[in-house]
Amino acid sequence: MTNNMFHSLHYPKPNLDNIYNVYDFELNFIENILDGKINKSLKLYEDFFCKHSAYNVIDINNLQSLKSYIISLSLLICHSVIKQGVSPYSAKAKYHAFSNLIEKSLSRTEVIDIGRIMIHGYIEQVRQYAISIDNIHIRKAVDYIHDHLGENLTLDDVANHVGLSKCYFCTQFKKCIKISFTDYLTHVRIQKSKYLLCNTDKSILDIAIMVGFNSQSYFTSQFRKHTGLSPKEFRNKKGAIESKV
């Protein structure tokens, strides 16, 4: 697209107050989800789409427009719950599951209903998995783990990366995360593998290597230990899992 074509495009300019109203809704809505307030979140949602008709900024009577907005809203929530401490892989899997359901919806009522389910789904994640990390060293360690998951990570590696002794790092890590370094590393690897199993067609061996397991058999045993299913069984149940988001 040339610059001339770009500048010739017309963008509707709704009332600025309405734009700010939508922005305020999004901030307040996400804040309540992060606080785990289901009733308040649902009321804000109902008021926005039913009482205020999205302040005439989003055409909620246009099915595709409504789908696009709720998917974008889901993405905002997804990124927010990740910042709150939910595993990126769990949050992204939830986002993709909701997006697929919304895209397949055939009516405005169905899309709005999925939005209500979405609220419950993200709040459940926050309540189950969110970790508040105030310790800057442990926050750095967690980020490092997620960024280097496919590598042969050791306790020494991560402790050295954040500049703490191994013993002190272990104590602080468990104090902040509530589980040991080894257990957390395995948990994150399993979470990412679940995401890859549901959202890619990569082989189980490839996924095992990508998330840092040295062999498919050890990956399978750890996966079964944490989920009650083998990786293959989990992948085969993808549709059923998505329907429970």
TrEMBL record:
PROSITE patterns per the UniProt record, alphabetical: HTH_ARAC_FAMILY_1, HTH_ARAC_FAMILY_2
Keywords: DNA-binding, Transcription, Transcription regulation
One Pfam family, short name: HTH_18
Start and end residues of each HTH araC/xylS-type domain: 139-237
Entries under SMART domains matching the protein: HTH_ARAC
Transmembrane intervals: none
UniProt KW Mitochondrion keyword: no
One Gene Ontology term of the molecular function aspect: sequence-specific DNA binding
Keyword Transmembrane helix included in the entry's annotation: no
Highest taxon of the lineage: Bacteria
PANTHER family for the chain: ARAC-FAMILY TRANSCRIPTIONAL REGULATOR, HTH-TYPE TRANSCRIPTIONAL ACTIVATOR RHAS
Protein name (record): AraC-type DNA-binding protein
Organism for this UniProt entry: Tepidimicrobium xylanilyticum
